[in-house]
Amino acid sequence: MEKLLTNSQAKIQRISLDFSRFLLNKIDWKQRLIAVTGARGAGKTTLLLQYAKKYLKPDGTNLYISLDDLYFMEHSMVELVDQFYLSGGRVLLLDEIHKYPNWSRELKLIYDDFPELKVVFTSSSILEIYKGESDLSRRAVSYLLPELSFREFIELETGVTFPVISFEQVLQEHVRLASQIISSIQPIALFQKYVKWGAYPFFKEGTEIYSEKLRKIVQLILEVDLMAVENMDYETVFKLKKLIRLIATSVPFTPNVSELSQKAGISRPSLLRAFELLHRARILQILHKPNSGVGALTKPEKLYLGNPNLLYALGEENVSIGTIRESFFANQLKAVSTVHLAEKGDFLINEKWRFEVGGKNKTSYQIKDLPDSFLVKDDIEIGVKNTIPLWLFGFLY
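The chain above was modelled as a monomer; its predicted structure follows.
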């Protein structure tokens, strides 16, 4: 236990607090059981360590450990908690819990048997934490850590900090807000960088190798995370790689399930299941019209890659600027709102607000005379009336 505590404190002390994700100050850390889910590379591990450094005392009462640690080759999670609690431990930070078998059952036992212990754990967004062997729905409070917002990217890239802007503020005050922001930065130039290599914090390690790192992350999601959560065999994973390539060179589109099933060598039920898993892994965005009866075997009405960076990394020469705009808009809005396809226009937000997304020459013809409708334009710094600059929707979190 002493070695585990020493290693934990070393990792916590090394972590920097210069930049932190928006979720660090949004989580209710008073809860006894907290789950943080999200895609690989989004910063879940950093979030755990920053929480410990910012809010916890370095007095041995808290412990950070990853569930792929060699310790768990010979010990169970329950054994760890027994030792930790007896030595005075009160806050346990468990990283990548999906890599531990029987995580759900043991976590329930820990929660019930150690009422004075707080547990914060991270997992892949693929994992449905409420559908494990033991029901945690009444115990765990879950938070999703999405990719970097455009606002967070600007802070990391330039050091300039802006407050979060609510969806309602964007709709009502976009002219004033955009005017304030452009007095400090050039948003369009930064936006062009963001859509290529700004959605994950590791862009700070070098933009030249960013796309290659992102492709490797997708590979790890398929070969490690999916296999850990779904017990997939190598042949199925290989077919999923083929499927992602087929989708990446075609998005956005309404999928022909029979055709994709044949090309990828996957049965129809397995293909629909794959869509859902890749959506939860944040490799895909699946969109439906409202009231379309979404279910496990429902065919997606439209598919996008999870964010524009994935399109550049996986779609390569097949990058469409229109697709970049739409995938950015859907990705940023999904973090704070419900996003559907609209009957007229591109998107319906919170089942009320309609948006048409395009370049600076886009007209509002498709949504004219419709109530609660807005035109979202790329390549403009400031909008007017119901025309809003696309980049401003990157300030929602």
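The longest strand covers residues 118-124.
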